[in-house]
Structures are given as C-alpha cells and as structure tokens.
C-alpha cells in the first residue's frame, strides 16, 4: 500500500477499466459472495471474510488495493455510529472497496430476503438462546424492547479506517457502481425484493383518513435485480400485527429492528398497486463517518458527518464529501434503498439490500482552501451536473444538545422544515462566498434565480432540506 | 366562434402547425406589437388593441380563434384578482391567445425595460399629475404609500372570460410557447433584461451576515432574447436607496410597485457574478383564475385558484388546470420570469417581461369524475413527464380567514413549510385515492417511494410545497 495522500486537486488514476476490478464487481453481481481472488486481510477483519487484492499500478507511487467487504454478523454494527468500534479494515486514499449492505427490514419477509443468504442469515439470527447481533441501537443493553432499545435501526457495514485521515480533513467517497442483492432462496431465484414500511415514525402516521386510523403497513416490492435503472413493482402488503420476538417481547408497533414477522399472524393482500412501476434509483440512505462528539450516536438522525441523510441522489456516479471528525474517519454505509421520493414520506424507501463499489480519496485540511471543500461542515454530494448542499433542522445536534440527557429526543422535538430551509440557505450562501469568493449580494441573487431547494426527508428526526446547485452556472 | 365545450376526454384539433398562428407568434417575437392581421375585437377590449383572427377549421363543429392581447394600461390590472373586472375578451373553449405580460419591476431600470416600449410606457406612466394605472394592490385608494397600498404587486394581463365556464368546472390552460420581450430602447436593440430584487419580503432579509445588515439589492440581468433555453448574465447591481415617487412619497424600502428608480441616487456595481450563466427557463409566476370569496384579492399570496404560485415549471409545454370559482373563470396571467430556483429565495426571480401563447380548454363539472381533474381544488400542473400538485401553508386562506379584517396578514403570519408539506401530502394522497382509485395504503406507499416533494416558494406569504408525480409510474 502506498502512503500517497491526495491533495484537493489530485485526480487519482482511475481503475475503472481494470478488467479484474470490473470482474470482481461482476462476480459480486452474480453471487452473494463468491471468492473473488483476493486474499483474506489479516487480523479480526480477515476472519470476517474481508479480502484484499492489489490493483495494477498505473502511476509511479500509486499502489492501490481493491477490498471486498461482505455483510455478515462480524462486519456490521446495528443502529449506531461509533468512533470506538474496531475498524474492519484500513485503507489508503485511492483504494477501492466493494461493500455489501443489508437492509434492516429484511425480516419483514424472511423467505424472500433472508432465507438461503448466509450473510443475511448470520446478521438476523435470533432464537430463544440469543441473537448473533445483540445490540441494536445506542440505548441501554437492558432496554425492555431489546438490547440497544432500537434507538437507531440501521444495519451498518463498517467502519473502514482511512489511513492518514485526521479531524479537519475531508473524505471523498465515490460511488462507482451499485447492484441489488439477489434473493438467496431458490424459490425466488434471480429476483430481488425490498420493503416499504409505512411506519409510526412516518409523516402520515397521525394523519390517516381511513380506518383503522392507527396502523402500520408493510408493502413488499420486487425489484429488477439485473439492471440499475429499471422498475420495482408491489407484490403484496400487510398491516403490522403485534409480533412476539424470540425472547418473548411483544412489539405492538415497529419499535425494534429485525423482529422476525410471523407470517401466520398477518393478512397478505396481493391486490396492491397493480400495474404501477416505480423507477428504480438505487442508493445508500445512510453513508458517512463517525462523529467525535459522542461514544455512540444513534444511526437515525443525520448530522454534519452524514449518516442517515436519505438522499436518493447518493447512487451510482455520485460522490459524497464528509468532514472528517475523528482519526481514520471511520467510514460506514448502510440503509440501502432501491428507490425513494424526496421526503421519504411514510418513514422508509423501498428498503432493499445493495452492494456498492466505492473509492476513497482523502483531502487534507491544508489543501482545502481555494477548493469547493473549504469550510465543509456538512455532507456535500456531487453528481455529473449538480452539487447538493444538505441542510438540517439542527446542523450538529450532538454538539447543540451535548449537555442534554437525550440529544436524540431534543433534535426530534425540533424537527421542522423551516429551520432546515434556513440551514440549507445558510450553507449554500457560505458555499458561494467561501469557495467562490462571491459577495453576499451575489450569492443571494444567484441562489434565488438558480438554486432549487427540495425536501430530502421528514422522517429521520432531524429533517432535511437540500439545495441543488447546477454546475453549469459556474464560469467556464 | 363555436359553442363547443370540451369534455374531459376531448382532444381539440391542434393548430400548432397552422402557418398563420406560428407566423403571428413569430411576429410577436420580432416586434413589440406589430399588426398581426387580426381585426380589433368589438367594445372596450377592442379599443385596448386586442385583435381576433379566425383559425381555419380542421374538424366539423370547430371554429376557433386566435386572439392577440397586448400589454398596455388598458389591458392590465395591477396587484389583484377580481371577479368583477370587465373582461378584456370572451373566448370559447379551444381558442388560442397570445398574451403579453410585463414585469412590475421594469421601473428598476427604466432605460433598459420601459423606454421605447409603448406598452410598458403606458403601464408605468407616472408624473406629478397622475398615473395611468393608479390602483396598485387591493388596499385603499387613499393608502399613504399610494393607491391600493401595494398590497399586491403584479402587473396582470386580463381577465379573459371563458364562455360557458361555471363554478365547479376546471379550466385547462396550455402554455404552447413563450418569448422574452425585447428592449424597446434602440441603445439596447436586440437585448432583453430582467430584474432580481433581494427584497424585504425575501427569506434572507432578517438573516444577512455582512454589513449593512438591512438592505435590499437589485441585480439587473441580460437575458438572451432569441432562444428559450439559453442563459442570463448579471449586468450590474445596486442597493436600494430611498426613492421619492412623482407624488412626493418617499419609499425607503421596496414597498410599492412601479416606483421609478432615480439612477442618480444609486451606485451601480458592474463587478457582479462575472462569468456566471443562469440557465433560462421562462415561465409565468402568476397564472390563474378569479376567486369567488372576495371582490378583490391581493395578487401576492397564491391560493386554490392559482395566482402567484411561482413554479418555474409553468413554461413552454406545461399545462395548468385551475378549479373555476366564478362564471367565466376570469383568467389572468402575469409575473413573468426568465428563471427562478425552487424557493425563489430572495423574493423575486429574474423578473422579465414575456409573451405567451396559450390555448384554453374548458372541462365541465359533469365530465370530471374518472379523470385526473376530479375533486381538483388547487392548481395542478402537467408537463411531458410529470404531474405537479401544489400545497400551501393555507390551502384556501380567503375562505379560512373570511371573517378576518385582513386575510392576507393572517396567511402571512402562518407561513410555514411544515403546513405546506402537510397540505401537499394531503392533496397528493387524495389525488391517488380519488382519481386512481387506490387505497390509502397504496397511495401512501407510492408517495413515499416515488413522489418528490420540493419547495416552490418561501416568499409569497402563503408558502408552497409541490409534489412531483412521475407519469411513468402509472399502469400502461
């Protein structure tokens, strides 16, 4: 591995035409986890099935690797970010990783989304004797709902330590490709499924107009597993009924992640959205780095380090930039989605396991002035044609409510699109003033006539408004 | 003229390939107001320069007309909707009209945007002896700021009476084409200009970070006058200074529309947004029909009958649908924009006079069940690929605050994206349930996984959130 650290202007050699890299990702596309020719990494991570393969050097001083990170009970943590988790692997700036992610809603349909998939089976294993992954969320281990209390729900793959990353740096993460995870059950060979749950944390929950006025509804979608921009169709739906977990705890609502749904207790309705086709735009709802402020942060509210910001634009071809908050950055990804509308209204997208191919580029603090990454204290996305600034009701709730006994409850109680809009405006103005040297008057006029503000999500506690800056406006 | 009234399924003959229709619009493109071969309509409207020309009949029973409606002091009303204004002309369902609209910000740069343009000159004429258009806004005629009090600011062309339209019907307005209005001043031959004002009603006004903390800024843009999808560039900007109008009233802020700005009192800064190019997306910020609830409604807050809803998608190729509230619908259009971002953050777009070619189609109430127009009580937009539902902080503030002394102050005091989001959700759910026969569970899942919610505007008193439904989701 190299000790090369990118400067902000660095364009790494691209390995995208590397036949082996393509081949390895294609292998991931064909099977859940076949050997891809890499050798196990050393230490604990190696035991979890993480492999490494050197990539052919294209440029003097560059010796990059491609890692493969399967999702299993040893490579994921559930419901939280933490700077203190032992990293799965350590990578250099410029390295690639193919990373499997698994949706926390898989147990809403065990047969379609877990059965026959060894990785998913190991993650969700739970019987009267125990769970493979006990902690789910940042809550206490003796929480009455279950260990961790479901205070944070997402199955997160990682963390990945980026060598050389220090607080104040910026981590660039390029999403080179995505693939849906096929069902491991021979009965559903070649198919992929996803879950949409209209849940108690959804925007609609206290505003239903048909009876029963209090209900949660799970809709199972079939997603085309072969392409990336095809469609998803509803298969059936059911209303959540009280579920008793293997430890005997009853869950009258969806209040703890990964509870196996006993399909003998539900009524399946196959007459659902007949003929409707949802355009698929695969993306990662949760992606980011660990915050310095706390030992353990719920995975639910997004924050300045990214996390669960739920922007559907975070898919193939998109690049995310995160302010590094702790040594090594501690990159984590999860909450895979096949599709989501801006707002993610009912609380979830089509929650669908995905594998992503990523490249990591580290930008050192000293190299940031004069670049678009200067003064970055929020997750910034870049697509081929756009830069996307993310505003939140509370820009950094962990700092703002550091003295509170329950920062998550504090941020949830303040959820508002009005404050998220103000934050998105403040950040966008700062972006133009600090990285483009515009006056405030110039920035404000430019924003009003050319920047589109959209509603990222209204369901993650810390609500989001994003600002879309078209790159075509910039001087050529 | 025909007595043909469209049913909801009716597709009128298109005259878009009619050489004369194209020729007349092209004529409008070349000059401000040349004779286009039509004959003056009779009555008062005829005197205002409105002309009519029969279109060749393509189908038995159809005899449509193309009207040309210039903008001048006789064809516009300023700052309000009213069911009681004498209509400019009466059209049949199926008729076309080329309609000139003039921005109310023209006097921010008289030389570029009024001088040499007889229509604009007649609208803005104001000297110590009087104004051609005295009332500007729905306020009292003896308001200290000026007649009408500037309670409503937009120069509105219309109203147009649609024969046969009754409350409960839906008026479809197809925007077939748009053109920018060229400067009438020989010094700026072939050029078009627009104004962006970062004004006191903007989202930024109480949140400025550089000195002086209280200021309004006018930025003058040059807009390519030839094409529709080209770019705009800033020419110069200036900070608003107290302006004394011809009646001697001092305007320390932008508090009354059409006040001539004395350029000897301002400091022009030409070092503004050098090299930045704003994509032009010409559209009408204000378009709609008259509400039944009041004699006179401010043109500022949008409502269920449309009006100033400020969606940049309302341009060429878009179709708007409005619930008819009064006999004849009383269609009005204005507030032309060269470009705007979703949010219209600083209070204005690039305010730029435009001419539009429209076709009117009337859908009778009895024909609405089973169509997308059933139960419509808000402005619905349709583009080639999308249907766009408009939510507001207050869906119908004129009804909601009917007993208030000042309904506009009431709605402004309640401006919130949170309530606008709820309204957009409620309407979108109703749309799917009532026009597509989906269950509430189906509607909510579909919305969450496929509908994008955006921020239309945060500056018009009644804030807007729109929901974008992709037409590709519907069963084929």
TrEMBL record, chains A, B:
Biased composition (Low complexity): 37-49
Protein name per UniProt: Acetamidase
Any Pfam family the entry gives: FmdA_AmdA
Region (Disordered): 36-57
Domain of life: Bacteria
GO molecular function, one term: hydrolase activity, acting on carbon-nitrogen (but not peptide) bonds, in linear amides
């Amino acid at each position: 591995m190299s000790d090369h650290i990118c400067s902000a202007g660095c364009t790494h050699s691209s390995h995208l035409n590397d036949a082996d890299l393509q081949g390895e990702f294609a292998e991931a596309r064909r099977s859940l986890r076949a050997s891809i020719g890499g050798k196990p990494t050393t230490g604990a991570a190696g035991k979890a099935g993480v492999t490494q393969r050197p990539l052919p050097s294209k440029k003097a001083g560059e010796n990059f690797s491609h890692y493969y990170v399967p999702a299993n009970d040893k490579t994921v943590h559930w419901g939280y970010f933490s700077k203190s988790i032992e990293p799965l692997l350590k990578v250099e700036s410029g390295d690639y990783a193919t990373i499997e992610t698994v949706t926390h809603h898989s147990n809403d349909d065990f047969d379609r989304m877990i059965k026959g998939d060894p990785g998913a089976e190991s993650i969700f294993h739970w019987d009267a004797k125990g769970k493979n992954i006990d902690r789910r969320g940042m809550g206490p281990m003796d929480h009455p709902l279950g260990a961790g209390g479901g205070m944070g729900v997402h199955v997160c793959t990682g963390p990945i330590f980026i060598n050389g990353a220090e607080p104040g740096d910026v981590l660039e993460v390029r999403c080179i490709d995505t693939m849906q995870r096929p069902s491991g059950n021979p009965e559903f060979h070649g198919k992929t499924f996803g879950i949409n749950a209209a849940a108690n944390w959804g925007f609609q929950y206290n505003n239903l107009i048909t009876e029963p006025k209090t209900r949660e509804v799970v809709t199972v979608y079939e997603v085309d597993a072969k392409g990336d921009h095809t469609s998803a169709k509803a298969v059936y739906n059911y209303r959540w009924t009280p579920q008793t977990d293997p430890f005997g705890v009853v869950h009258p609502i969806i209040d703890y992640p990964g509870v196996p749904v006993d399909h003998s207790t539900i009524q399946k309705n196959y007459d659902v959205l007949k003929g409707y086709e949802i355009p698929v735009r695969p993306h990662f709802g949760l992606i980011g780095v660990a915050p310095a402020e706390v030992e353990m942060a719920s995975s639910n509210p997004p924050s300045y380090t990214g996390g669960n910001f739920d922007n559907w634009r975070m898919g193939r071809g998109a690049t995310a930039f995160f302010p590094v908050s702790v040594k090594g950055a501690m990159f984590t990804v999860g909450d895979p989605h096949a599709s989501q509308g801006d707002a993610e209204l009912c609380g979830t997208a089509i929650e669908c396991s995905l594998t992503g191919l990523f490249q990591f580029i580290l930008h050192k603090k000293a190299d940031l002035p004069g670049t678009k990454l200067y003064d970055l204290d929020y997750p910034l996305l870049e697509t081929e044609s756009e830069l996307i600034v993310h505003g939140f009701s509370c820009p950094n709730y962990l700092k703002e409510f550091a003295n509170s006994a329950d920062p998550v409850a504090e941020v949830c109680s303040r959820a508002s699109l009005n404050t998220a809009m103000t934050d998105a405006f403040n950040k966008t103005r700062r972006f133009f003033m600090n990285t483009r040297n515009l006056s405030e008057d110039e920035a404000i006029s430019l924003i009003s006539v050319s920047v589109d503000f959209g509603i990222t999500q209204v369901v993650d506690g810390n609500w989001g408004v994003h600002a879309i800056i078209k790159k075509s406006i910039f001087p050529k």
